[in-house]
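Hi V.,

Quick status before I head out on leave. The structure for the redesign project is tokenized and pasted below; the design run finished overnight.
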């Protein structure tokens, strides 16, 4: 299978400020990629390079086997960038109809607006729409050409809960259709339901590439609590244990490998009481992943 995106040793700087450093990446058709990283990590810059809006300084980057901005890429990419829809004197339906003329396999604007619950906004000027409404129109604009590859940069920012749900439902349809998506987000739980692979961008490098299950295995902390008369030092050297603390009579163990720590606790079980186990949330993983990379 020919990769849809191939990056080899890609670097990019704004002047002397190195933003992307020696990135290599292969994305195959049909993959849904969650691109995560804290503010300023370089996510938008990477999307801009992929779109051909900016040009790489070093390395090699191809989409559909061509350089970014090539004819195949132009016809086959839809994008939803941040704050990219400030056009005066045009209505929603006019915008989508005009955009559709640029693509050979374009979707029918009225049908797309109906599917995205935009029909009642069809004749509104873009300048009169709210921020969340504009995001929904921007999503429609990304889809109008029926592209194979979609770049969605923090797509749900500004959308209310209903709009977010409708958005993720549509993303699942795109996934079922075999489209390839790169979705940036700061919020791991929302991309968990759709992403096949997570890329964590930190200080211009990918510090993690893998599935959610791998991310959880590698980074998700587990907290095991119990009461015991045994000394705290009994637990400090057990497999996976990163910290042992005691509050009143309750001992708390933090572990990066809950399964191995539990196995190591088995011989002590007769002396442990009221045992509970809690896995850290995905949102918390993002926080300590980014703190770890900053340290
Ligand atoms: N036009 C520009 N000129 C100079 N520096 C820039 C420019 N655009 C972005 N930067 C810098 O490049 C770095 C990466 O920015 P980028 O917008 O790619 O990050 P991001 O991961 O998308 O952040 P966010 O999550 O806030 O959207 C930041 O330090 C930013 O200040």
């Amino acid at each position: 299978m020919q990769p849809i995106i191939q990056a080899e040793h890609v670097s990019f700087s704004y002047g002397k400020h190195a933003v992307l450093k020696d990135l290599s990446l292969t994305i195959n058709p049909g993959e849904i990629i969650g691109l995560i990283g804290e503010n300023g990590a370089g996510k938008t810059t990477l999307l801009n390079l992929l779109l051909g809006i900016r040009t790489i300084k070093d390395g090699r980057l191809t989409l559909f086997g061509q350089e970014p901005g090539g004819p195949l890429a132009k016809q086959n990419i839809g994008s939803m960038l941040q704050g990219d829809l400030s056009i005066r004197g045009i209505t929603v339906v006019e915008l989508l109809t005009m955009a559709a003329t640029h693509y050979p396999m374009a979707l029918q604007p009225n049908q797309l607006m109906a599917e995205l619950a935009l029909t009642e906004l069809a004749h509104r000027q873009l300048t009169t729409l709210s921020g969340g409404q504009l995001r929904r129109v921007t999503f429609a604009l990304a889809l109008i050409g029926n592209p194979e590859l979609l770049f969605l940069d923090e797509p749900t920012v500004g959308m209310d809960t209903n709009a977010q749900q409708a958005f993720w439902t549509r993303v699942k349809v795109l996934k079922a259709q075999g489209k390839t998506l790169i979705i940036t987000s700061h919020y791991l739980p929302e991309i968990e339901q759709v992403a096949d692979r997570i890329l964590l961008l930190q200080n211009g490098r990918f510090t993690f590439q893998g599935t959610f299950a791998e991310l959880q295995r590698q980074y998700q902390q587990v907290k095991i609590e119990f009461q015991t008369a045994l000394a705290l030092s009994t637990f400090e050297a057990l497999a996976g244990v990163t910290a042992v603390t005691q509050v009143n009579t309750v001992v708390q163990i933090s572990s990066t490998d809950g399964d191995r720590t539990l196995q190591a606790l088995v011989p002590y079980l007769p002396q442990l009481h009221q045992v509970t186990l809690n896995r850290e949330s995905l949102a918390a993983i993002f926080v300590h992943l980014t703190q770890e990379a900053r340290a």
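Above is the designed sequence. The first helix runs from residue 43 to 51.

G. will cover questions while I'm gone.

Best,
W.
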